[in-house]
Structure formats: C-alpha cells, structure tokens
Amino acid sequence: MHSANRQSQLHVASTILHYWFSIRARQAKELSGGRILIEPVWKAVGEDKADWDQAVARGVMTGDFDMALVPARAWDTEGVTSFTALTPRFS
After folding, report:
1. Which percentage of the chain shows pLDDT scores above 90?
2. Between 9 and 33, the higher pLDDT residue
3. How many angstroms separate the CA atoms of 62 and 45, rounded?
4. Hey, which of 3, 25, 50, 89 would disulfide with 38, CB 3.0 to 4.6 Å?
5. How far apart are CA 44 and CA 38, in angstroms?
6. Measured between alpha carbons, how far is 14 from 37 in angstroms, rounded to an integer?
7. Structural domain containing residue 80
8. In this predicted model, what pLDDT tens digit does every residue of 36-52 receive, in sequence order?
9. Is the pLDDT of residue 9 over 90?
10. Are residues 23 and 48 in the same domain?
11. According to the 3-state scheme, what is the secondary structure of 14-73?
C-alpha cells in the first residue's frame, strides 16, 4: 500500500508540474509577442535514469538544452558550485 500511495503522490505532483509549465510557456509566448517559445521536454534523458538530474545538467552545459529545471544538487556534481548554499548538508 505504501508504494501505491507514493506512486499516486508522484503522479499528482507530475500532473501539477506539467500544468504549471504549460501555463508559463504560454505566458512567455504571449508576453513576448511570440519571440520567446518554450517547449518543455519531459524525461529528456530517458525513463528511470538514476542520475537524471546530473544528465540534464550536463545537457545544459553541452548545449543540448537551452535551459532546465533540475535540483540545485545536480550542479555541484558537475563542478558548478554557485548553488552550494542552496543544498544544505544534513549529517
């Protein structure tokens, strides 16, 4: 039951995130007079990849993606330390 509840929570969160981004993409297009076009790509590095966040960050660094939404922790492993203060260590 716990696993099913977790999957349900992830599905709800994913649905909300998709909805939020579709609104923001539409707003960017409208407010820029069509000069800015944001096309979200979900699961851009594949399904169930353990290090998906680092893989997406690498994609931004290599120019495969113009921008990305990834956790701040992903950048630290890629040598970007600017976000270190946003990732508190709980040890």
Report:
1. 37
2. 33
3. 14
4. 25
5. 14
6. 22
7. 43-91
8. 999 988 888 987 888 99
9. no
10. no
11. HHHHHHHHHHHHHHHHHHCCCCCCCCCCCCCCCCCCCCHHHHHHHHHHHCCCCCCCCCCH
CA nearest neighbour of 27 among 38, 41, 13, 14: 38
| Shared-domain flag, residues 63 and 78 | yes
**How many domains are contained in the chain?**
2
Same domain for 53 and 10: no
Q: How high is the pLDDT of residue 41?
A: 87
User: H or E stretch including 80?
Assistant: none
Which tokens belong to 42?
């979900």
Distance, CA of 72 to CA of 53 (rounded, Å)? 9
Backbone angles phi, psi at 4, to 5 degrees: -65, -40
pLDDT higher than 90, residue 3: no
Query: Token match 């203060």: residue?
Result: 85
What CA–CA distance (Å, rounded) separates 51 from 73? 11
